[in-house]
Amino acid sequence: MMARKKRPASATRRLHRSLGAGSAVFVIFLVLSGLVINHSNFLGLDQKPVSQGILLDWYGLEKPQSVLSFRVADQWLSFAGSQVFLDEKPVTNLSNGVGAVPAGDILVVAGADELLLLDNSGQLIERQSWEAAPEDPIMSIGLLPDGTVSLKTGQQLWLSDRDFIQWTKADNTSIQPDWAHSEALPENLVQAISLSYRGHGLNFERVLLDLHSGRFFGPIGVLVYDLVALVLGFLAVSGLILWFKSRGNGKRKNGRAKHG
Amino acid sequence: MLTSVFKKALGLIGLCSLPLLLQAATVYETQADFLSRAFSSSPPDPGVIWLSGERKATVHDLLGHDYPALRLRYWCQTPRSAWVLEEVGKEQPITVGIIVENSYIKNLKVLTYRENRGGEVANAAFTDQFHRASLDENTRLDTTIDGISGATLSVRALTRLANLALYLHGESGCNDGA
Q1: Region A37-57 average pLDDT
Q2: Whole-angstrom Cα distance, residue A212 to residue A214?
Q3: What ipTM describes this predicted complex?
């Protein structure tokens, strides 16, 4: 019996094999990352901030230019960019932080055009737009000896009511509040705030989405992924062609066997 | 030297991805303008409503999470109340002004939109759907709100806020002059 001579593979088949093998790694990665992205909410990845230095470096997220801190009772209230920290815990955002004072169980935090009321754990009680005189930004926040919270805008003093709902102009110009002054933050808190600041807004879902789309590697990554997508499209077409060809060959073989 | 070049290269590539993290806010109406519109005369003094106890639990049920503040400011001129509420669409809070009168929504307006997609929810053609919406016996909107393709999360956020404003209007007692 004569051994059947093996026919050389067609160009389509060779290309199909090579590209299939070459893109296998990408396909596996895309499948796995896609699966994780589909369940990122369940896995909590959309809420998990990135704190790894190498990833933060990769995204070009830098340390805050400065950290402005105020001692409020036995805690520290800090502004790093537009982020507000109570000790090392990020609590909320506030633009142009001015200062903070404790008022009983409440911390009153002032920005140039917004006020925050926080409880001692950093939970936001209320965010107030500075509507009393929106054209005059808040410059300072302080306390009167009786515990009344005071604000300064230009040359005008403002006093809060008992529940921090309304702010009224102080007519008595001799009032001298104890204004909040920034102080140097302990080094361990500076480090913790810096790391948290850099990771703010960048969660693991974002990183995975960027990896999945190729954006993680910049414009070149997107082009490479475009190429991979085209290759996958080609594999689908070449796979169909090869399948139809093999069906045709099979029918011819069967036909020969019946007639032979 | 090599480390410095490598770091710069990393930074450059990272910067290419950074625009994805940065979103610009679009202000459609300021809070002051919204309140002026809500009350033809000057707005009444604000009141506050605390989200605690059973009310907090109901708000959690309506939103699917706690409201990110423990008390809310509102403006009441019986039987009309005005609310400025925030809810996250996908990643950023959407600020919405809602006017409620006699337990019906009189007007809903997106004041500030911060997401980079889905801003179509600010169009009057969409927000007009909330006009005359009220709560059913299950404290849910009695009106079906048609979605917008590509803005599903923002549509849901606005629907939740409409629900919340109607509930809080009832809680504030503004309907009966409390």
Answers
A1: 86
A2: 6
A3: 0.73
